[in-house]
Amino acid sequence: MERSAMRLTLFTDLGLRTLMRLAGEPERLFTTEEISRDLKVSRNHLTKVVSDLAAAGFVQTRRGAGGGFHLARSPETIIIGDVARALEGDQPLVECFQADGGACTLMPGCRLKGRLAAAQAAFFRELDGMTLAECATPRPKIPG
């Protein structure tokens, strides 16, 4: 049997790591090439993450020569829970949390759904207690 835990998607993980890196040097303009190299991830995947971060208002992008992206606001004002909610989108924790109720055969008599909803709320409450400034990642050290 496969084991799983309440967790964020890899997409959200990459979004958080990107923001943490930007928060380490909040005044600086970064390129997707640079961040993808720092985080050792695909540039194409990072481009989609940055696009979603920009759409959610966490980063600002600049096109053209000398372009790149940077934090849209101070890291002290960016709440980690808000980022996770924005990037997770409509990912249901379990099937019965889907808008249409999914295909759960235990509904409406299930007594677990309420506890799972409470656990999910507690998970996000914990993330709501932390700002991006608290988990900023400093510039990577260059060997040599």
UniProtKB/TrEMBL annotation:
One of its GO terms (molecular function) is DNA binding. The keyword Transmembrane does not apply. InterPro entries: Tscrpt_reg_Rrf2, WH-like_DNA-bd_sf, WH_DNA-bd_sf. One of its GO terms (cellular component) is cytosol. Keywords: DNA-binding. Transmembrane segments: none annotated. It comes from the Bacteria. Gene3D superfamilies: Winged helix-like DNA-binding domain superfamily/Winged helix DNA-binding domain (1.10.10.10). The keyword Nucleotide-binding does not apply. This is Predicted transcriptional regulator.
